[in-house]
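Inputs:
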Amino acid sequence: MDKKIRLVDVAEAVGVSAVTVSRVLRKPELVSEAVRLRVTEAVARLGYVPDPAARALASARTDVLGILIPSVTNNVFSAVLRGIYDRVEGLPLNIQLGNTRYSVLEEERLLGVFTRQRPAGLIVTGVDQSARSKALLRQAACPVVQIMEIGDDPIDMMVGLSHRDAGRAATRHLRDRGYRRIGFLGARMDPRTQRRLEGYAEVMKDDGIFEERLIVTTRRASTVTLGCELLSELLSRAPDVDAVFCNNDDLAVGVLFECQRRRISVPEDFGICGFNDLEMMAVAHPSLTSVRTNRTEMGRRAIEMLIARVAGEPIDTPVVDLGFEIVARRSSLGPSRREAPFST
Amino acid sequence: MDKKIRLVDVAEAVGVSAVTVSRVLRKPELVSEAVRLRVTEAVARLGYVPDPAARALASARTDVLGILIPSVTNNVFSAVLRGIYDRVEGLPLNIQLGNTRYSVLEEERLLGVFTRQRPAGLIVTGVDQSARSKALLRQAACPVVQIMEIGDDPIDMMVGLSHRDAGRAATRHLRDRGYRRIGFLGARMDPRTQRRLEGYAEVMKDDGIFEERLIVTTRRASTVTLGCELLSELLSRAPDVDAVFCNNDDLAVGVLFECQRRRISVPEDFGICGFNDLEMMAVAHPSLTSVRTNRTEMGRRAIEMLIARVAGEPIDTPVVDLGFEIVARRSSLGPSRREAPFST
DNA sequence: TTGTAAGCGTTATCAT
DNA sequence: ATGATAACGCTTACAA
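Outputs:
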């Protein structure tokens, strides 16, 4: 193996000092064109790559963007990640991903590790960090974006949506379509799911149709299989339920399969609304209504805000509400209707 | 903000030298118990966290595990990641995730960035790295695991399965169940999908039932929607097709939905086999046959091999074949059968 | 068992 | 425009 090439090796080859090479790499405009060209050539020829550790130690900065998400398997976060990776492409930034596993303590631990590296920026999920985590973030000496949710009192910046409002809107949609005994299926019960439940409960109470027995929740992670199970549970507790707001699209798909198995007609006998509008919702049979959240855009915007702040630009709106949209499809067409405005 | 606490600050507080504190952190058994306790206490009290950059620079090592995967949105890789994160939990290792986007060049670039950090270990996807990437990996001075596939000529270690054999097995399964005009649906067409196609083609040719028109592929990423589209394409090209081997479970689910829409009976008129056995396959209606790959286990094993090597243990089997299993469900029960051995 | 001294490869500071 | 020198915070010899 070829020995490691250092700054001084390049400098020697060119016949200049190490600082000059360093300058060519970081602030080329400060170096005369003649020298700059010779250095650039030598760097390429020798295959020099700066040592990130030495750089970090000397400059007290890194090109690392720390991202903390609660799950690596959840579809929802992969979409956000895609937005992040898309936007970072080509920039001199490296992403370091931390998996908090929905644990506030693990988040705290990772934040300790991350902030020690003097990252260029940090992205964390949600607004429910522990007091210690929030303190770490405030001291972090780098821009911070909280994603997925919005709220008052941002640590620094926020991009997300109001899950409570989204829960309200989904419930109203089912109600407006004529369903009355609307159930709620929730998995994991992380803070965002809980806020959607709040929204659901508010609407149901306002309408005087709220009933505890219509709510089935679990701390287990959301899966299609779980959707089947939770619907079974709901049906046994409330056989007269006529629709359900599923807090994740996987649950909704599971509910659909279970309905097919039980020969329950969707949407005539039973309405379904999911959450997040995963790609498959549109092509299910019948197609499934969901609440579209702009997750990829969320990742993109978070990075953009981070970049702008690193560049010293002032952020006019530190809290960005990306909103949501009810994507009404056949599964929530309304009870016992005959017409079919949607083709699928 | 409190000033950054360094090793010397802790040393001063305790009344020992910096090396001693450093030893307590890395090799506590070399320090007398009395001193060790006082140091540990001071570390906790002052909230000292070592600077990873300084540590890396001084020791020429890091606690970073570099993981390179082709996609952050693909379910298949999230399962592997889960295995990795599960196994790493509690260990003094940090995971750095790189997204190659199925690009050999991006893989090369990331490998350059990663290897410069002197990682504790590296995990890369597949066996089709570029010559330069392979050279980088061989020089990497750290253990390397190639995952997802196996083959001869490992760079260092491998954990995976033979996708060609899996493709053969899936095709044979459909044939053994009585289907004859078996189609092939493939998305993305990455190296692993291509090898599954090879396996499919071999079996079909051996049986003398191979036909080009039965194969529909695209470079687009695998989605449920794409499954619907590819089936439509296949049906228009070969209306007499009686089964399909889908190279991803998303495609298979899309195919199922499209069959439901077209009122094609599965499995009587049409057999379906997916790949990967995602959780939802078991609860679809009808339940969907798939090829189970042990993706979570794959991640776990990769980490274990890495850890063992870091600990200096010799690896007896550097190439681990995790195999696969045909999980036969209703969707491939066979054409025009009447009995139903499976409940769903 | 503990401490001293010399780097690790880069950047910041201050000269020239 | 370029260079000399001192950090940056830690670890690795080697010494005591």
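Remarks. The longest helix of chain B spans residues 191-206. Chain B touches chain A through 51 residues (CB under 8 Å).
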